[in-house]
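Morning run. Coffee first, then this:
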Amino acid sequence: MITNTTTIRLEIEKGIRQKGHSLSSFGKQAGINRGIISGILNGNPPKSISIRQLDLMAEALGHAEGWMYEYYVDECFINEKADWRRIKAFLLRCTEIGRYDCIKEVLDRLMEDLNNTISIFGLAEELYAEGKVQESLPFYECVIENEKHQHSERLAISHYRVFRASIGENTEENFRATIRFEPFRDRLPENFMLDGLLALANVYYTLENWYHLEICGDELITLSNAVYTECKRKMNETGNYQEVDTERALVFYYGQGYLIKALALEYLEKYEEAKTFISYYSDLSWFENLDEVGKKEVEKFKLFAIANMNNLNLLLGDDTSLDEYVSFLLEHPHEILPSICIILESANKHNFSIDNIIETLLDALSSNDTSDKNYYKNTKSINRYVDLYYQLALYNFQKNNPAQGLDFTLKSLKIAFEISNKNKILERILLFEQFRNFSNKDHLNLYNDMIKEANKSEKANITDSFSFGAN
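And here it is:
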């Protein structure tokens, strides 16, 4: 009976004959001891082949990477028993050259015994720790599909890793990733939960889901306070302060909880209540055991508090400190992008005239590292540019500059399509249609091209009802 392991050996023997090699000359060519090759081909039972040896022999015979991998799976399960050392080496090699078909076949075999999820999870974590995030995902997905214990940390961490890796620029994909991960967030260890809540909050911000954003803020406040209290208790008992194993300093999560809460309240138009929560992160210098990184975070929160308090005053219709606020933003240009959107929104809401201010801030924005040539670096910035152009469009329409208003509407619409944000797409299309009579040929051509391209796109069937614009 010819098996896959037999087939590998027959192919090796065939190649050796075709190349005119003896076992000795082939061994020298491949860099493998003659005795090992003899044991592999002639042993009774034949000596097992390591994946490294198979690769060396494939190269010596002139074959491409991955030669005979589809047959090598059986080599990992001698007498149907899994050889984890051999399996791990094979799986790692498959991740290097993209043989995910072989990875799937091995994982399917391993899952005949669900206890193997422990080893699979360990391998996934090793890959993740080495920065091989995409390579780790098939193994986390395997754990998700096969973990027997639904409340295990392994399952929750696997969901968390897949969630973090899934977040990108596409709003719809981010939404689906969030729905999948959310039920598992409270099953994570505390250090993972802090980062998980922060990641969820970022997605809810881009989705403009202020209700769930507020919940994330509340949970982050509660958790970071609890972790801080526990750290202090342990320090009082032992005399040593042990930092939590998180991506950022603990003070960062503490401040972010209150910042996220205030931000959600701002968008829910609960401005006075939002001011209360800004005060909680405006001065965190009292936070114990701050290292240099933590002290820098405290200084950042001070800046955030100044900017956000000014934003709330503007939204309430108070522009008495606007000139002073603009000077502050010019000194801290990284705060211009989020703040200029609020300044414009306030001007549109309360009929402020801010032509010179907008020109000054836009010039500073374009010359700074946070300019539009770099805004695709993160999803939050992308959404801010969508909003910036939209608010600029509204401002120009109010100022009776419809041509410029349409320019900015189309800029905003273009990015909204790129990130597949349905709500923003519809909002901008309705705005364009409202002022269509003021459009010129260039406006209409660009608009119709975007609508046609979106209708052809397979990203999402979100533009079927928008075809009225392409005529």
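Residues 210-238 form the longest helix (29 residues). Good start to the day.
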